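Bit of a strange request maybe. I'm writing a small parser for structure token strings and I need a real example to test against, not something I typed by hand. Could someone generate the tokens for this chain?
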Amino acid sequence: MRALVIEDNRRLAGLVVDGLRRGGFAADAVGDLEAASAALDVAGFDVVVLDLGLPDGDGIDWLRRRRAAGFSTPVIVATARGSLDQRIAGLDTGADDYVVKPFEMEELLARCRALLRRPGATLGTVLEAGGVALDTTTRSASIGGRPLDLARREIDLLEIFLRRVGQVVPRGLVEEGLYGFDDDVSPNAVEASVSRLRRRLAENAAKLEIHTVRGIGYLAREAP
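Reply from user aminoacidic:
Good idea to test on real output. This should exercise your parser:
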């Protein structure tokens, strides 16, 4: 899952990005609305965390324009504007949720997960296939009820595949889901991560197989 944080306070943006990454998101931060629009135009994000008072405009106006143009990504407004009228205006403009600063990172994570569990979204609380289960809240995996010890990147990769069992997942989508703009990604980083996850699943007799679709990406499916 990938999140974009639009926040001009660099320290706060860094804290939110770190918290989102600990919660299983690949997260990026930008400091103004122009950079936000550019990021959304070149990469797919699953959720946006939006401050309102930004150097080049008001987040409410920006969100109104984006929604009018067909932008449908879930947006959580995170701002110091906490009056009832301001919260109502934010939600009526197109925000899916609204939190007032200061907020607890665990609450923001829970709100992100709740948005992505809505009908038509891609994230469930527990994802299962081939005897493998992933709790997206605790970020813990198991096989047949036995805990499966995976590194954070492997957990993120497993989530991508469990959400798309039986579908070919393009390599670019996998890369977008695992890495932010500032991550130093080697040419074979995705292949190495997939290889490690395959090995861990095989070692634990999982009935979930991950196949490489040459020139396209990967296919996760239950073993026949």
